Amino acid sequence: MKLIISSVSGEPIYEQIKTQIRTAVLDGELKAGEALPSLRKLAKELRISVLTVTRAYNELADEGVVQNIQGKGTFVMDKGNELMRRQLETRVRASLAEAVSAAKAAGLPLEQVGSMLVQEYRRQR
């Protein structure tokens, strides 16, 4: 996983880190149980303060995305974790809302959209 930080984006650096790690976990790029880089290592790579990385990791832990284990590091939580499941559900709902808007704009009937969803769901298995 490669984090890209922008100092001119207007978004705080710790938020950029959180967003990118959260996305990598939800997309499956980071697997359950996988260790994140140490605080010092990531701070050095990104040329930022250890406190900034600490804040990002701690907030991700509060969200249930990662788990901080004293003396061992920070590890990705299982997607079965309730908080992660809710975040995934929110992501699915947002994608479905976007798909419904596109379907309505195209004049597709609900039955056809439902059929398309079933086909895509089965294709992904």
Helices and strands, with pairings:
Blueprint: H1 13-26, H2 39-46, H3 50-63, E1 66-69, E2 73-76, H4 82-106, H5 110-123
Antiparallel strand pairs: 1-2
Helix pairs in contact: 1-3, 2-3
InterPro entries: Tscrpt_reg_HTH_GntR (IPR000524), WH-like_DNA-bd_sf (IPR036388), WH_DNA-bd_sf (IPR036390)
Keywords: DNA-binding, Transcription, Transcription regulation
GO molecular function: DNA binding; DNA-binding transcription factor activity
Question: Summed up, what is this model?
Answer:
This protein has helices at residues 13-26, 39-46, 50-63, 82-106, 110-123, and strands at residues 66-69, 73-76. It is mainly alpha-helical.
How would you sum up this structure, described in words?
Residues 11-79 form the HTH gntR-type domain. Keywords: DNA-binding, Transcription, Transcription regulation. This protein is mostly helical and 125 residues long. It has helices spanning 13-26, 39-46, 50-63, 82-106, 110-123, and strands spanning 66-69, 73-76. The protein starts with 12 loop residues before the first helix and ends with a helix. A two-stranded antiparallel sheet has the order 1-2. α1 (13-26) packs across α3 and α2 (39-46) packs across α3 (50-63). It has 2 domains: 13-76, Orthogonal Bundle (Arc Repressor Mutant, subunit A); 82-123. A hairpin with a 3-residue loop joins β1 and β2 (73-76). The protein is built from 5 helices and 2 strands. The radius of gyration is 18 Å and the shape is elongated. The longest helix has 25 residues, at 82-106. The model has no long low-confidence stretch (mean pLDDT 91).
